[in-house]
Amino acid sequence: MESFKTVSTVERLVRNGIVTAMVIGFAGWSFYDGYVGYPKENLEQAKEELPADLQATATINDHVTEADSSAFAKGVKLKDISEAFGPPSWQGDFGGVHEKAVWFGRGGSLVVLVDRIGIAQAVEWKTGKRKETDLWLQKLMGIVLTPLGLFLLIRQIAMATRGAVFSDRGLKPSGKELITFDAMTGWDADTYKDRGQITLEYESAGGKGQYVLDDYKLAAFKTIVNEISRRKGFDNPIKEEEPHTEVS
After folding, report:
1. What local confidence, expressed as pLDDT, does residue 216 receive?
2. Which whole-number Å values give the CA distances from 150 to 31, 75, 154, 155, in the listed order?
3. What domains appear along the chain, each with residue ranges and CATH number?
4. Radius of gyration of the chain (CA)
5. Tens digits of per-residue pLDDT, 216-243?
6. How confident is the model over 7-24, as pLDDT tens digits?
7. How many CB atoms lie within 10 A of CB 152?
8. Three-state DSSP class for residue 133
9. Torsion angles phi and psi, residue 204, rounded to 5
10. What average pLDDT does this structure show over 206-220?
């Protein structure tokens, strides 16, 4: 008999592959929303603070957050805010009496009205469509899902590459010793009907051993069980009953 290697069934690979792809996809999407997508939505909304001809050049200042912006209030000097965050994304006339200075953050924008000598007359944080907590939750979701996705991916690779090699010498499960035909002593099929598992019992150098064959995890499950039963003369636990024919 020509030896062959058997791995997980196609059904198992497909099902687990779908779950793995979904988890990895959600992790990537969460990171995208937290770092790119949500801030981009907020920026589009915040651009309304700018003249139409300047909206296309608006960019996000990563240093501008709601918490840091709360340190500034009416009466602060514009230069103090600029020292903390850098120059405003835009500064221009507002009603002929004040100037408006705007900084765009990831979770919203800081809008400051200043008088002609650079003193703030109003300081307001405008929360974006996606709050900073929304961004944080998306990043957290990505952090949680990433290791799970990697675990599932490694498991998926193992399903597609690890299994058992069957040959004239016997059965060699991945990572385990060869179970020769001479060492095989019988089947324990008590869990087959309920769980699709049959335990191969054998003698080893360390005493008695067991190897569980699972019809969901091994594509050649039936071939292996049938061939071992035939060679060893074991009662075949998966052999279909012969149809009963009445003799007249």
Report:
1. 94
2. 15, 52, 6, 8
3. 48-128 (3.30.1450), 163-232 (2.30.29)
4. 34
5. 999 999 999 999 999 999 999 997 644 4
6. 999 999 999 999 999 999
7. 19
8. helix
9. -130, 175
10. 93
